[in-house]
Structures are given as structure tokens and as C-alpha cells.
Amino acid sequence: MTIAQDWAEKYRPTKLADVVGNNKPLQALRDWEEEWEHGVPEKKAAILSGPAGVGKTSAAHALGNEMGWEIIEMNASDQRTAGIIEKVAGSASRMSTLTGIQKRLIILDEADNMHGSADRGGTRAITNVIKKSNQPIILIANDLYALSSTLRSHCVNIKFNSIPQRSILPALKKICKMEGIICGTGVLEKIAENTGGDLRSAIKDLQATATDKKRNRSCGCHHSRKGYKGIYFQSTYQRFQGQRSR
User: Fold this and answer.
1) What is the pTM of this model?
2) What is the extent of the structural domain holding 134?
3) 41 three-class SS
4) pLDDT digits (tens, 9 = 90+) for 9-37
5) 134 shares a domain with 32
6) Residue 87 in contact with residue 120, Cβ under 8 Å?
């Protein structure tokens, strides 16, 4: 059985201009990037903080892709002891790139989720890596103040906010168009409203509503004039949302 691709990943932006909402933080990220174009800036790292699902990691990857920078990422599924951080991020932040690209972007996702013995010494190691780095580093965090004040002082702090419903709605409509889904505006508005500014959750809810035919018993399928399969939603999202909240 074919596993459907996660729409949140499928439609992850590849350019900063495509990241939804948070225009001021995105401009601050561009300003920091421009400093790297003129040498090594005083603040070699940036912290992108804010609620889940608002585009922090997407913005980091979009920046790297847009600038043609090689990207090296460490996320929460990786062991992040002091030794490993120094081996992976530390060496990457000082070595020239293997591809001949001028810059290498190191992304440390969920930087505020380093607790317990597995990540012991990780925060101190990150600070040391930043001090020695000649490459840009981006830390992703939900809670800025879960990071040490020493680490924060070495970084440009960029705060992302929840995405307004008015910005989520056009993003959902665009995905519907790309997927060949005919979906009532009222259903999309309900999805956007119920996810509380979390675009990633909104996209996942849209995909679940579109593809879960057991819950979607009242939906009908037809072919549009363009030849793709369309799914028309009536009140199915309300039933899906009720089961999702249990």
C-alpha cells in the first residue's frame, strides 16, 4: 500500500518569500543573512523562537536553499552530547564545504529540548561552537528562555508568532488547488480557526480530512475538467475534529 506524502513536507517553502506570515521576523532573518555576505558578523548564530508550526524550521531551510548554502541539520532524534555536537556541528562550522559552496548553514532544531543525561553538556558545547564558528548557525526553539542567557547573548534573537487565520486560509486554499480538492470555504475556515495559528497542524488536519474516507462518508468524488480527482467536503471536518480531540 502506498503511503501518502505528508502535505506539510510536500508544500514546505523553498524560498523565504513563500513562508506564510511573520514578515518582520523574516526580514530580521534576511538582515542577519546579509551580514554574512560581507564577512563573519559579530553574532554568528540566530535563534528562531516561537510556537510550534509557525515556520521557524521552514524559514531556516528556505534561507539556506535561497542562498545556495550547504545545510547540515541536527534534530531532537539525534544524540546531542557535547562530544557529538563538537564533532558534527563544530567541525562543520569551521571546515570549508565539500561542494565548493562558500557557506555551510548549521541548523540545530529543538535546541530548547536538550534535557537529561543524553544531551548533557550540549548547551555549553553549542555556545563554544558558535564562538569558534566561521559559518552561519541557526537554533530553533519553542521557548527562547529555556536556553541559557550565555547562549542567547551570542545570538541574534528572532521571535516568530502564531500565524493569523487570515494568512492560514489562503495557504490551505492553495494546497486544495494543487491537490485537486474542492473544499468549502467554511470547512477551511474551521480548520484554520481550530489550529490556533499553527499552520503545520492546519495542513495536517486538511490532509486527514481529505484522505480519511471512513470519517468522510458524506463526501463524493468527481473529475474536474482538468482531469484530476476532486473531493467535496460538506460537514465532514466537524466529525473528524470531534474524534481528533478525544
Assistant:
1) 0.79
2) 7-159
3) coil
4) 999 999 999 999 999 999 999 999 999 98
5) yes
6) no
